[in-house]
Design a protein that fits this description.
Order of helices and strands: HHHHHHHHHHEHEHEEHEHEEEEEHEHHH
Low-confidence stretches: 1-29
Shape: globular
Structural class: alpha/beta
Number of strands: 11
Radius of gyration: 28 Å
Largest sheet: 9 strands, mixed
Length: 534
């Protein structure tokens, strides 16, 4: 969060934009991040990853706001020396620049000096308390359990020294951008370390990028009612910066039910200089923004949640397309998103593959009603193994309130299906990742189909994409699985004549048979030498 509330910090956005366009800046952390993670992970010792992440990320956040403060402090001190009337110890000077005020006892230089002391845990806790006291928007956000007996203070001191070196020697703006990248990288690594639990607070950045690149949220209200650690918002800001937009043109609204994850989200956004209105609570039962109509909804809700207490909301006004079953929240989320869309709003979200075809507990009828209301703009089937929390494949839904939406072509009665299951590459034994080319291919196909300005001309590609009319979807029983529509991939034409191919294959076979016979004889000869021959 920022001292200014729900609007983004334009100065911070400009800094990030400059970094994004600087190739040297973009690659500077390529080797730094893994090295820092390896060092930090070594210091973890036997501490559980779920517990350790709050220690590490809390320190990175503290270093970030302290660096931002010190840069402004130096600027004000120079102005004061020039008799320009600035006071480097006036909190209002910092609040006016959307910079958090950091009291003396919370400044990083003080913490680093105190790191060797056995009381360093209490010193860090006191620093967190002081920052929350001076900055109301951070109240309840920062971790304050560094003094607990179970935390090795010698390792804490080493960790403070490690974080102290992040961005060392770089210009102030660049150093803070590095801290932001490191925070984001560490979030992903902790999600991987925690496995299934990691999925509660982190959506893989490449999946988020597909959503953001397809929706292209340049301007308006962006909403995520299950925002986790805030990755959708960070990616939206990056998109705007990379496309030379104005980061102040979007307003961010989010809600997160898990208190610990809500704290992570606030720190994640603040460290990137992103202002947002992030509420803590259950979006179903305590909707913090009941009157919000968003231009963009971006979300990755919990898959197949059976513990959402749906029986208490049987007659809720949000269920315009049918009452969702108490045993599965998938279509409760879908209708919550629709309810919060502005008249020309677009939603993009992740759901389990079953949502595209299930007919259990009335879900098929709800999906049918949504299809018949002509809200489904695009469906994307993704490959498996993209998530840390589950190995099952997932899909992306894109809903449009009005397919006559200004700026695009009239798409009424038509839905785009994209089968991206063959895309991506394995990064390790268990995880797959979409490449930049993959993301551009999927997003570019959607933009061409809906008629974005300057987009390429759209054409169906067998095995990959198909624009289907409503009647065709009805013919498939309102099932939205892309594989049913895109058909089989076109086989490559074989120009080699059949006789020539057979001669070549037979010649190859004869060579392989001869080599096999030679090897058999060699093995038999060795066996005879050992006394085991005939």
């Amino acid at each position: 969060m920022s001292p200014r509330g729900a609007r983004t910090n334009r100065a911070s956005g400009a800094r990030a934009a400059r970094a994004a366009t600087d190739p040297a800046a973009a690659s500077a952390t390529t080797n730094l991040e893994p090295k820092l993670w390896a060092s930090a992970d070594m210091l973890r010792n036997n501490m559980d990853a779920a517990e350790y992440k709050h220690i590490v990320l809390g320190l990175i956040f503290l270093k970030y706001i302290s660096d931002a403060f010190e840069a402004k402090h130096a600027e004000l001190a120079a102005a004061a020396a020039a008799a320009e009337g600035a006071d480097p110890e006036d909190p209002d000077e910092y609040k006016a620049a959307s910079i958090f005020w950091v009291p003396r006892e919370a400044r990083w230089s003080h913490l680093k000096a105190q790191a060797p002391q056995p009381t360093i845990g209490r010193t860090v806790d006191d620093a967190m308390d002081a920052i929350e006291r001076e900055n109301p928007t951070l109240k309840g956000v920062l971790p304050k359990d560094f003094a607990r007996p179970g935390l090795d203070k010698a390792r804490l001191a080493q960790l403070i020294n490690l974080v102290s070196d992040i961005g060392l020697g770089s210009p102030a703006d660049r150093a803070r951008d590095i801290l932001g990248r490191v925070y984001e990288y560490f979030l992903a690594q902790f999600a991987s370390a925690e496995g299934k639990k990691g999925g509660q607070f982190y959506t893989p950045s490449r999946v988020v990028r597909v959503l953001v690149e397809m929706l292209a949220p340049y301007k308006g209200r962006v909403y995520d009612p299950c925002c986790g650690s805030g990755g959708m918002f960070v990616s939206s800001e990056k998109f705007i910066e990379e496309h030379r937009g104005r980061v102040g043109d979007i307003s961010i609204y989010g809600q997160e039910s898990n208190y610990t994850t809500w704290r992570l989200a606030n720190m994640n956004l603040a460290i990137r200089g992103i202002g947002a209105n992030i509420a803590q609570g259950d979006s179903f039962h305590a909707d913090a923004f009941p009157d919000l109509k968003a231009d963009y909804v971006l979300a990755n809700p919990p898959f197949n949640d059976s513990d959402w207490r749906g029986e208490l909301l049987r007659n809720d006004k949000r269920w315009a397309y049918g009452t969702p079953p108490a045993g599965n929240a998938n279509f409760a989320w879908v209708q919550h998103f629709i309810h919060h869309l502005a008249p020309t709003g677009i939603a993009g979200f992740v759901l389990a593959n079953g949502s595209m075809s299930t007919n259990q507990s009335g879900e098929g009828e709800i999906r049918k009603s949504i299809v018949e209301a002509d809200l489904v703009d695009c469906m994307v089937a993704l490959p498996g193994q993209l998530f840390y929390s589950t190995q099952i494949p997932v899909c992306l839904w894109f809903l449009a309130r009005d397919k006559r939406n200004s700026g695009f072509r009239d798409r009424r009665g038509e839905t785009l299906f994209i089968d991206a299951r063959k895309l991506g590459s394995m990064t390790d034994r268990t995880h797959r990742e979409l490449t930049d080319t993959d993301i551009a291919k999927v997003a570019g196909t959607y933009h061409a189909w809906r008629g974005d300005p300057d987009a390429a001309e759209y054409a169906d590609v067998p095995g990959f994409c198909k624009a289907a009319k409503l009647d065709e979807i009805r013919g498939h029983g309102h099932v939205l699985t892309p594989g049913r529509y895109v058909g089989a991939e076109a086989a490559e034409e074989d120009a080699e004549p059949f006789d020539d191919k057979m001669r070549r294959l037979v010649a190859t076979l004869r060579e392989q048979q001869a080599e096999a016979a030679r090897l058999d004889e060699l093995i038999n000869a060795n066996l005879r030498e050992l006394g085991y021959g005939e």
